[in-house]
Task: inverse folding
């Protein structure tokens, strides 16, 4: 599937980090963006999920710093996410072929995984799930 | 306040998973406006990409009234003030919730 994307970029500064914001054309419904549109035998590859998963496996700083910068999570949630980033990053791997439904699937299933595999409260688990889903949706801004 | 998470409370009030996801995406995406890096046009594109069946068109910065109208236009019936208070208590988009609640 060859999805054509046109980008227009603008730049701004996020603290000491240069951040570019990419604008994408509006897509017809039949070809909603799946982050890179690459179809594999396992499904549609989501580079957004791959980037978030890799970042979390590497300690999570990129995702956590962005979530803190944009004030999506508070300090307490950030610390718990940091402690569990590798575990969550490894778990995310199974959504790498989930295409454009990945963020919604992660949001729905991550609280269950966290409940079964950590001791965090369900409120914190929900905050982290919201933040990880947000990071997948906005990966084009977070990862440049 | 009960021991429900925000999404559990929304579902208890009859909202679907998709509606909960829509509200969470609005809240987290519009929180980014405060940074000055993301503008309303980017948010419109992002939300319409993920929720093409929903009605979402933001002009400028979001506020409580605009958020309320978005919910009404999509026939989502929930107490927005309580919703934002619950997000604030739980720790999602705390400062954004405070600002949205400032003029209520």
Result:
């Amino acid at each position: 599937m060859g999805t054509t994307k046109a980008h227009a970029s603008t730049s701004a500064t996020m603290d000491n980090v240069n951040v570019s914001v990419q604008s994408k054309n509006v897509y017809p419904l039949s070809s909603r963006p799946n982050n890179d549109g690459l179809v594999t035998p396992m499904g549609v590859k989501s580079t957004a999920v791959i980037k978030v998963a890799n970042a979390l496996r590497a300690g999570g700083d990129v995702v956590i710093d962005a979530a803190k910068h944009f004030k999506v999570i508070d300090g307490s949630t950030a610390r718990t996410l940091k402690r569990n980033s590798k575990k969550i990053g490894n778990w995310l791997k199974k959504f790498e072929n989930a295409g454009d439904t990945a963020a919604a699937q992660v949001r729905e299933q991550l609280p269950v995984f966290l409940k079964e595999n950590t001791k965090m409260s369900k409120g914190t688990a929900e905050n982290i799930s919201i933040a990880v889903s947000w990071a997948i949706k906005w990966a084009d801004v977070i990862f440049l | 306040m009960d021991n429900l998470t925000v999404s559990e409370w929304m579902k208890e009030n009859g909202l679907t998973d998709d509606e909960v996801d829509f509200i969470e995406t609005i809240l987290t995406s519009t929180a980014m406006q405060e940074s000055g890096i993301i503008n309303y046009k980017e948010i419109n594109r992002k939300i319409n990409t993920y929720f093409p069946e929903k009605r979402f068109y933001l002009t400028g910065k979001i506020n409580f009234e605009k958020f309320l109208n978005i919910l009404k236009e999509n026939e989502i019936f929930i107490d927005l003030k309580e919703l934002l208070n619950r997000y604030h208590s739980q720790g999602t988009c705390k400062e954004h919730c405070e600002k949205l609640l400032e003029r209520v």
Notes: The interface with chain B takes residues 12, 14, 19, 21, 23-24, 26-27, 29, 32-33, 69-74, 76-77, 100, 103-104, 107-108, 122-124, 126-127, 130-131, 133-134, 137-138, 141 of chain A (CB under 8 Å). Residues 47-143 of chain A form one domain. The beta strands of chain A are 7-14, 17-24, 39-40, 43-44. The mean pLDDT of chain A is 79.
